[in-house]
Amino acid sequence: MAAAIAAAGGQRKLADALGVTPGLVSQWLTGRTRVAPRWCIPLENVAPQAVTRYQLRPDVFGTAPVSLQEAG
Q1: pLDDT the model gives residue 66
Q2: How many other C-beta atoms are found inside a 10 Å radius of the C-beta of residue 45?
């Protein structure tokens, strides 16, 4: 999550890009709240190369396809 925040330019910018509160982004960062599955793909789009849905919620999305694992 820290990489996604950095890629977006900070917690507030990430929150604005996703349409959520900075407080929710802070909760994701600290691990107080897990990222809901509905936010995983938007996070990938806002911060490409920083975080993947597979990293955020492997319980929902499983493991990354081999092609993504080799690229990362």
Answers
A1: 80
A2: 10
What is the C-alpha separation between 45 and 25, in angstroms, rounded? 16
**pTM exceeds 0.70, yes or no:** yes
Query: What are the 10-residue block averages of pLDDT along the chain, 72 residues in total?
Result: 96 98 98 97 94 96 79 56
**Locus of tokens 């929150």:** 15
Which structural domains are found in the chain, ordered by start? 2-71 (1.10.260.40)
In angstroms, the Cα distances linking 15 to 2, 5, 18, 40, 63 are 13, 9, 5, 13, 26
- In contact, 34 and 57? CB cutoff 8 Å: yes
C-alpha 58/C-alpha 67 separation (Å) is 16
